[in-house]
Amino acid sequence: xxxxxxRWIALAGTxxxxxxxxxxxxxxxxxxxNLVRVDVSVTDAHGNPVTTLTxxxxxxQEDGVPQNVETFKLVEATGTVxxxxxxxxxxxxxEHAAVEVARDDMRVFLIFWDEYHIGQLAxxxxxxxxxxxxVRNALGPTDLVALMDPLTTxxxxxxxxxxxxxxxxxxxxxxRRGVYIPTRSVIEExxxxxxxxxxxxxxxxxxxxxxxxxxxxxxxxxxEGRKAVLFVSEGVPLGRETYTWLDEMIRNANDNNxxxxxxxxxxxxxxxxxxxxxxxxxxxxxxxxxxxxxxAALRQIVRDASAFYLIGYSPSESPVDGKxxxxxxxxxxxxxxxxxxxxxxxxxxxxxxxxxxxxxxxxPPEIVDALGALFDRRSNHSLDLWIGSTRGADGRxxxxxxxxxxxxxxxxxxxxxxxxxxxxxxxxAVADGxxxxxxxxxxxxxxxxxxxxxxxxxxxxxRTVTVPDFSAGALTLGAPVVVRARTAREWHDVSSGEATPxxxxxxxxxxxxxxxxxxxxxxxxxxxxxxxLLSRLGTPLLSLPxxxxxxxxxxxxxPLSGIARGEYVLSVEATRGPEQAHALVPxxxxx
Length: 591
Prior knowledge:
Structural class: alpha+beta
């Protein structure tokens, strides 16, 4: 195991990477191990916070069973600067923003502009007008606000107090419902690919849904206290998957202490969206769905964040069943409105045990080993290498050695393969990109040398690999082939035929990857293949769609523009009855 990688991962601690498809998180228990925290907003008939309540004024039920309120606190944040306050209004850096966002006395808001589901004309105009008034007139001097759309990555989020700059950014927002060209990224180019298995509208809805989920989980990671998201959209048309996503979205928002407010910019013209209403109503927010001029109504978002109560209770049943448990909060005082999250998902005993093991052991060994390839790459190599095996036309294993030049110093490559059956030597120009040869199953030592134009050896690397026996009946995956495309033309070329594997593992967020994996071992048509993107700690972040051009081959389309900078592991797993086979590909995503 690579010690540098182990040390790096240990230093990473529990840092989480949020991307476009988050995994469902367990409920957040703070304080004692079984203490459930609920943030409750209480307003009067005019929408103003009620701040004179005591713990005795509240009644809390879980699944209809009364609970004892054990912790109680009123939190007030006015967004103003008190005399002598050393709060710095100007956000100087992302690090400074992170410190300010984490403060309990700060109000934090995220505006999500769902451009895919906002019309170009009246809807967009109304939405921009409402948001401009909101940031200019509703917010206080110390309030922190970030603006994002479906293609904004989490690492690109910027919290600011500069309301004039926010207003300028809002002025640039556009509604793109039904508008497909020009495309904004390689993600949108993928949506227009005629081979795409779903419609463009469904793909866009997925992008919006996963981006909103990622934003909520990110907010939960950077701040424990209450956060508010204003989701501006006409609705997320996921078809039959709509309510599955809605359920997960509500649970994620509740677990991350985030109230979601929804605004349909069509106002009275549009039909009421049950999805937008449910999302707000079940997360402690409010739905603004029938407002032709919602400017005044949106101020409720700020009022709700100005004062709220933190209530904690220990569930009488202490559930560990993996089920959703409904929370109901009511206030004994008449004439008030109460908003709070509506429940949480309890962990299972297996999840608790696994969490303890992961926390104790850090990243799983196979993840550490996979990431070790990223940290072991010496800077003085002139080539990146990839070695993979597949079944040749004659049934024997076919080994491919591919290389990607790092600079222009290498001109020729020599490959010596040594196995129990003897040695064989192959030579090729660097521009050829790869060599292929048959080899028997078992251990194979591969010695790769690179020479410059004068014939002098300038680089050498020796690896030992195991060649699979593809004639056996056991389910087996071939080494994943990663192909990189940097432009639409390159993508057309690499996706329309066989392409030389990209041997490097450092990529830019402007790259789009095509990953091909072959399946072997009897009737592989019955095998189910799943792919996920994992964090550097092995946490599932993103489920990836898998296509099957044939029974024995699957493909993954992975645009990187929606993924934050960092180190990841792509996991491909095939299952056939009790049999399982998996392959891991480490990736480093840069700017």
